[in-house]
Amino acid sequence: MLVIRLKGGVLFHKRPAKGLLAGLYELPSMEGHCKKEEALDFVRKLGFAPIYIEPLPSAKHIFTHKEWLMKAYLVRADELSETKDITKADERWHLVSPEELEKDYPVPSAFSAYEGYIRREERRKC
Fold it and tell me: d(Cα 42, Cα 37) in Å, to the nearest integer?
């Protein structure tokens, strides 16, 4: 999981219409547990310039039929690159402010372990 902080909010991805947590919003994620450099490469491929990365505590969510072990990073990114804006190029990506998160974006409880990191940063206005 990646908590990608940008000026104005946190990046979220809308899950597919079918399958686990269908149609809900999630933090960007990668398959498996990645290292810092792999996470930074992922952020760069999305079109962002990472300026800070911090490992977050691991978390576990248990579904009725599946156990999800999550490793996460907090990534502070600078402005979007001039050549790519993922939130305009792909409607599944959303830059979400805390206010919008409260009323417009249903986030599954599976990601609640990282909710404090999403909201904490916004209060500090960094």
Answer: 9
